[in-house]
């Protein structure tokens, strides 16, 4: 990282940024250009590893690209403010890369959908097998994660 003064190495601080994020952007490969899409997401840490979960339609370009190459990059951020009189903003971000796999087991799919709902504070809706059968659910196992922030002075 070029700006070491903005690097975030504290795991708790990185987790806090993720907790407050509302969108994960995932970059897929497999064609001439990378393909980046925003997703609702959920996440968990298990056995010292970070996992993100997304859901998608059962068909589409991203699914085809994942079938061809399941290595992806991701980014989450909380941009707060433009700094007047400059060409920068105040922000916090987490980025990394990992491997995405589709979840086939229904109980795992429901658990992942529950984590997605938890990220957005949903307390009443509970996904069921009819909902889960109409969607593809993916687990992104993060292989590298880094954090960066410009919080001002």
TrEMBL record:
SUPFAM superfamilies: FMN-binding split barrel. Pfam families: Pyridox_ox_2 (PF12900). It comes from the Bacteria. This is Pyridoxamine 5'-phosphate oxidase family protein. It comes from [Eubacterium] siraeum DSM 15702.
